[in-house]
Design brief:
The chain is α+β, with helices and mostly antiparallel strands. Helices cover 37% and strands 9% of the residues. The strands form 2 sheets. It has a two-stranded antiparallel ribbon with strand order 1-4. Strands 2-3 form a two-stranded antiparallel ribbon. Strand 2 and strand 3 form a beta hairpin. Helix 3 packs across helix 4. It is elongated and about 75 Å long. The protein starts with 16 loop residues before the first helix and ends with a helix. This is Transposase. GO terms for molecular function: nucleic acid binding. It comes from Rotaria magnacalcarata.
């Protein structure tokens, strides 16, 4: 019965540990995609996986910020840019002083449309990661420039 899904035993001393204490995953595994965009281009993305709720400040500082700084040096060496913070806690970590630009979710929606076009579905995390990378390479810079103006 669904409401009675526990384990019952007349002798708990002889019950195997893996039966008594079956662990349950709190969060589903996720594929994280981070990138910077501007009217001049798209950064090299960070694509990784996590079992936790979201990206944390350590991952942001170690994996994302180096890509952001390289992007700024390449496309905005004149220091003519503005960071637009969203509400992600990693953007407000005490161990860095940069914030990430928000794009009103338009870019995320367009990327998802490209990734799942035609009913495509991933059967593994690696398939999804490869598909995201493939579709990001196909993005038209004119679309990104238009989004930046909105």
């Amino acid at each position: 019965m669904p409401g009675n899904a526990g384990f019952y035993s007349s002798n708990t001393a002889n019950t195997p540990w893996n039966v008594k204490f079956k662990s349950k995953q709190k969060f589903e595994p996720k594929v994280l995609v981070w990138l910077a965009l501007s009217s001049k281009g798209i950064s090299v993305p960070y694509i990784g996986t996590t079992d936790g709720p979201a990206i944390d400040s350590n991952l942001y500082v170690q994996k994302c910020l180096p890509k952001l700084l390289a992007f700024i040096r390449r496309y905005h060496a004149d220091n003519n840019y503005i960071f637009w913070p969203d509400l992600a806690s990693s953007h407000y970590a005490k161990n860095h002083h940069y914030m990430a630009k928000s794009t009103k979710y338009t870019f995320c929606a367009k990327t998802a449309d490209k990734v799942y076009h035609g009913g495509w579905l991933a059967t593994t995390e690696q398939q999804l990661i490869n598909r995201i990378k493939q579709q990001l390479k196909k993005f038209d810079l004119k679309i990104v420039q238009t989004m930046m103006l909105e």
